[in-house]
Amino acid sequence: MTQQSRAADQSQAWIVPLTPGSVRNVLTVITAGFLVAHCIVQVGIYGFGKEKYWLDSLNMDRELNLPTLFSSALLLMAALLMQRLGQSNDRIAARDWRLLSKIFIFLALDEALQIHEILIIPGLRHQVHPALASTWVIPYTALALVMLWRFRGFLGSIPRATAARLLRSGAVYIGGAIGMEMVGSFAVRSSLIRLHSPWYGAITGLEEALELLGIILLIDALLRALLDQHNGIDLTLRLGANSDEN
User: Fold this and answer.
1) Residue 15 in 3-state DSSP?
2) Shortest CA distance to 203 belongs to which of 58, 61, 13, 40?
3) For the segment 232-241, what is each residue's pLDDT rounded down to a tens digit?
4) Beta strand pairing status for 236-238 and 15-17?
5) Burial, 155: exposed, middle or buried (Cβ in 10 Å; 0-12, 13-18, 19+)?
6) What is the pLDDT of residues 24-34, one digit of tens each?
7) 193 and 26 Cβ atoms separated by less than 8 Å
8) Is 213 exposed, middle or buried (0-12, 13-18, 19+ CB in 10 A)?
9) How far, in Å, CA of 26 to CA of 12, rounded?
10) CA 215 to CA 172: how far, in whole Å?
11) Average pLDDT along the chain
């Protein structure tokens, strides 16, 4: 093997292809890491009685921390991909992609700032079913159904595989964000578990993990849609001293 061919092989070794599958795998590993850290935090809090303030940065039941920042960043990534898809030649689909992008920007802000918490009305908790004690789930469930109805034509106009991936990711995300929230509320309000307990910590960990998994599946679906739209996008990450030249 010549010196030139060895150098070429070495330069190729520093090129990492960013396929939808590889992006999904990396994001899933990060999510699994956050879930493991959350479990360790719960053991520290309830097993060893450690002070909570220094554990909050990895506690998935807390806000304005690393898991929340990661989730908001993923929602923004999805919004940007939808904006890119909004540049398609199909005017109707392009309009709906751009509208979805704006919705996901709001969801990213909601995740970061917990806007939905404003809709929790303590006085209503004794008037509704225990599963609805976190009263924000009522308007958000209604909005999810309205969005499904609003975008029914859009889902029928895009490729069937893309529509199926979008619906699957949405089901996982809503199952975590709303479904597990209702499970936790029911368990606490029915006195099956205490609010500050490892059981509730397990529920919130599963809730956040499902939310993240839903967003990751969405990003995977959007990347695949972009590949189909542009007949194969060249997504590569080049590492090394000569990466600036590429």
Assistant:
1) strand
2) 61
3) 555 554 444 4
4) antiparallel
5) middle
6) 999 999 999 99
7) no
8) buried
9) 21
10) 9
11) 86
